[in-house]
Amino acid sequence: MSVIEGEVPFRVLPALTEQNRDFWTAGARGELRFWRCGDCRHWIHPWQPICPACHSKSLATEAVSGRAALATYTINHQQWMPGPQLPYVVAIVEIVEQPSVRLTTNLVNCPHDRIRIGMPLRVIFEPHPDPDGDIFIPLFEPEDA
Ligand SMILES: [Zn+2]
């Protein structure tokens, strides 16, 4: 897994909590982490206090492979707020470990005429300094980028 180098766009950054800190900061170690049930191994995102599959409270964060599939996308041509350079791709991706875990993210490093539903992707992190702990926003690029 890699990190975007150079200038990064303005983003409204999340407020870090005990529950979301690993998700937003583990990119510093090249990891994409989600909560996972210690009993039935179900992946849980966003965090919930009990496992929705088996009602266990034995939850901890774990790294996934960083691989995902493109579920759907839209190309944004309108500058609604400060953010990435236009046009950019807003994507919903499904992680390969458990497709019910979906992230709304940006697809990067991909010519728009190459975008295909279901295409294999991998995570790439966009770093943002933050006084409370640097935030690494998980974006996705084609697996063969
Ligand atoms: Zn469970």
Report what the structure shows.
Strands 1, 5, 6, 7, 8 and 9 form a six-stranded mixed beta sheet that branches. Strands 3-2-4 form a three-stranded antiparallel beta sheet. It has one helix at residues 21-25, and strands at 2-3, 32-37, 43-44, 59-64, 67-76, 88-95, 102-107, 120-128, 135-142. With 145 residues, it is mainly β. It has one domain (15-142). 3% of the residues lie in helices and 39% in strands.
Assign a percent range to the helix content.
Answer: under 10%
Look at the structure and give the mean pLDDT. Answer: 95
Bound molecules: zinc ion
Report on the biggest sheet: 6 strands, mixed
Shape: globular
C-alpha termini separation: 12 Å
Q: Which H/E pattern describes the elements?
A: EHEEEEEEEE
